[in-house]
């Protein structure tokens, strides 16, 4: 019965069904899965004098005056309440019936808030008899996502009612007993009951644990199936791991590869030459040298007769990679053909590149999202690299690799993410980590300053410029705004140019400029024709100008820690001592705390973990809210323990010897789940 329409429930008419439909609820199952978004605790009542007038309050009080009905329709009920110390007013809208139910001289429990207009008026409180309320104390009232036409009480009633239409079979257990016992999991049906009306904290906890476990378990199990399937595919796409090709590139590099880079290259090449389809994440903090790793792999793909493609999130970065990779490749005796494809190129230019890619005249193409369009067809695509992967949606990962057969995929990211999220986002991937930065890199020196110290900062910048180095100054805004008090690139650029006119060349850069202008400025900056670049965060990711040694970030508290760390990564890219100056223009505690973290550490992983604590779930990666990771009740940021249990359970099943019947049941469940969720994730 669980999959019948909600219309079959007693008292649910066409109108209610229509409202529910707006919440995506059509069946009883969907109604039961409409879990509360939060809970209100049934707290013990307090005295009026003790309440916090900005919060929801619970008081036990006596009705001290007959209820009067006012308003044009006599539907507004008002009276006074007292706890024999204080007296307050109370008002209910649209509730003439209260006159019959609430009696003068009787005591009740009232739960509600004070009116915004009158601080002594309790507005539309819920009323409980004292006995009724006492039974609830310590329990939780579920709060649901609602839509016009259904209020929270109505939703609560509907869900209660829906339990009459199901039986235990509807939530048959699919996990083996051994796992339930090991991880102390309650039954699903109990969990669903308790999630909607928990009697106390521990019941709520147990319910949440079971349901979150299910979310994680099915996801991880499904992911394992996918990975195993991938590992079983015998690929025809074999990329040579011949050392001589690696040596050819190494011979033309102006530096030696680090041990970390060598290891990662070896890992990838072993993968790509082994006859399986590679899906690998290359992780490494900013400046660890990921680009060259990608280039060597691309070169080997070309040597094996394939084409390769690199996708990056910004045009600035595409241009930069194109330039730096071309420079290296062109030193080879037999350089591969390299091309670029970005959104700002003309239609005609696009068509020319499309044709060359399709004919195989371009071996390696570097580009932005522009690569994803249907017209980009490869002759023989063998390797896809996505740089700064965290900037792309989870879904975009497969769009490019679908342009070839058994395509190997490398994704590169500097953004260190918590382990749980890494497994969720990249769990079907193997992971390589570039552990160290190139030798000779000095740790960046950080300073968090306030506005009074700006002059000192400028002096320092000038000093660096005198040594022949360059500097970035980052502002949050492009131009002046009426509403936001923060530095803007255009005014700041002028100010700095005036100030330093004799000593250095200043330019501005921001996202609203034409691409040609941006390119021109970036290449002049790279050629040391510009000393100070006043820019927005357009240079946040990937930009590589090793001669830049100072970055000064205005209104630093306005940026997230991850962004600040990425911005700081624009310096410290050579053996020169580099500096990051964070200008704090807010006195708030959170601003101070954040900047203290970035000022005291250069370690991306540490910063990410602190960021998570400060900013809380959801906000950090902009993923949870966008619905790309739809985990019902599990919270990918805070439910680490449950996540670990689910992971262990998956491992247990993988290695253990479950009965055929049990296994079959499990697989059916998982397959259903995959159908529902995987297409969406396109992992
Ligand atoms: P990221 O990991 O942030 O993408 P890049 O690949 O842009 O880093 O490399 C940062 C800088 O370090 C570049 O200028 C690059 O040429 C240089 N580099 C890379 N590997 C080495 C190395 N082994 N030794 C010295 N410099 C290196
Ligand atoms: Mg990079």
From TrEMBL:
Belongs to the helicase family. RecG subfamily. It is an enzyme of class 5 (isomerase). It catalyses: ATP + H2O = ADP + phosphate + H(+); Couples ATP hydrolysis with the unwinding of duplex DNA by translocating in the 3'-5' direction. One of its GO terms (molecular function) is ATP hydrolysis activity. Pfam families: DEAD, Helicase_C, RecG_dom3_C, RecG_wedge. Its EC number is 5.6.2.4. This is ATP-dependent DNA helicase RecG. It comes from the Bacteria.
